[in-house]
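Re-running the complex after MR caught last week's input typo. The corrected sequence lines follow. Everything else is unchanged.
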Amino acid sequence: MQKGYTLFWLLPALIALVIYPIVTNNVMLRETVFLILLSITLSISLNIILGFTGYVSFGHIVYYGIGAYFAFYLMYAYKVSLIVSIVLGGLVSAAIAFVLGQAVLSLRGAIFAIATIGVNEAVKSLINNISILGGAMGLYFDFSIYDNYGGALKAIWLSYYLMGTLTILSVIAAYYIKKSKFGLGLFSIREDQDASAVLGIKTKLYKSLAYATSAFFPAIAGGIFAFKAGNIEPSGAFNLVKSIEMIVMVMLGGYGSVAGSALGALFYEKIKSILLVMPYVKDLHLAVSGLILLIIVQFAPSGIVGFLTKYFKNLRKVLE
Amino acid sequence: MILKGTNLKLSFGGLVAVNNVSFEIEEKTIFGIIGPNGAGKTTLFNIISGVYKPQEGKLFFKDKDITNFPTYKRARLGIARTHQIVKPLSELTVIENVMVGACFGKKNYNLKQAQKVALDVINFVGLSTKMFTQAGQLNVAFKKRLELARALANEPEILLLDEVLAGLNPKEVDSMLNVILKIKQNGITIIMIEHLMHAIMKASDYIMVLDSGEKIAQGSPQEISNNQRVIEAYLGDPKLAMQLVGAK
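Corrected-run output:
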């Protein structure tokens, strides 16, 4: 697959997005951008299993939660440093995804989607009942933990930098996977798994590796988020609503497209931020995200990017 | 001998799809398989390509027992196939489809090499005008060519062709047949299932006839076309047919 020009504009745009709150030293804006970056990371990662490989991982937030809990507990109980904790959280989550993938990825279509919801709920219930992880109440940092990072204020900035770095890395990783032989194998599996096996692709291994990769980045994001928040609880870490939002973002942008996942996340966050502040309705964004998903599936199954490239064929090389 | 099957058997529930079938295939020949609908031809292909495991019997590739090899490993050995019901990777372009065959085939090419191979193969089967078309948008004749191109990109030693001529018009059949004969000249062993009698009689060196999962005959095209059992399998009982005609 020929490399296009997507990263030439996407990366500078992302870097500009990350830098803008730093330059203007605007704390409010930093919080907004932090959430956008988190969404982009989640959406880019989910796209690897959903868009590249064709598996609708409905409960994908479980890997975010596992990573968050693992990293948080390392910092909380063993005072392990932030970077080491989040990276370990990512690796553990990816390993769990790889092992679980051996089983659940044999399922196809809707049954796979339902199984992943089951996995998420099962892990949530499990953690609800483990008292050293705080059970349903969760865990709270002692504020002194932030002293190692120059105080709480600096720690928040640090988590922002880390999230920015993670987002950029996940975009680069997703793009290079798409353009690699591995990516070609994944797309082949998406189109026809049985034909792929006949063509010589180790489908099981490829699917599991894609699943593990798509679990890795959300897990690190979870670790960063938990560190910044200073607390963690099962209902926040394994929030199925977040999972659905991830799917909406990928579908909105255009599944299979790296630029699409980023744009989808950006647009969704924008819509959400408008709806969230409307005074007379609560949780309207959830209804709207359901509506968006319906409209996309019905009228534009390949999302914004699919819509654009259909009418402007020249855009294909820049919206991969 | 490049491929050998001994006493292969596979049943689905009570239905015996392939029953006690043995065969030996010589290198660089075209081995035709014919038989009425439901004779077990495609099932036999599925056993050879590893989609199904036989319940009894063994399969040897160059004297190596491959009965328990998974599907992808057989592709890597150089056993490539086309599907009777075409399976294009619909949202990928033609060249990407063919590159998949090259990337994960016998030579395990990287993307760059695969692209080169894919270009050659696409030209060879006559798909060059459709190179950047999405596979799902091709018509049946081109989809069949794509199946063939993808299998060839594997650079296989054995090529399994499952009704690549079905659904083509006479002109397309002729040009496809030429492609198949050219593939044979390049030293690839071909096993083909075909319903078009004149085509398979013309192309094959040997023909095996299956009926209700069993092998009822094998021989040169000449022998097969004069074989009593084969005629019966295709037409029913010829004597009975004659009697009925005579009675009228």
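None of the earlier attempt is carried over here. Chain B touches chain A at residues 49-51, 70-72, 75-76, 80-81, 83, 87-92, 96, 99-101, 103-105, 110-111, 114, 150, 154 (CB under 8 Å). The beta strands of chain B are 3-12, 15-25, 30-34, 56-61, 64-65, 79-81, 158-162, 189-193, 206-211, 214-219.
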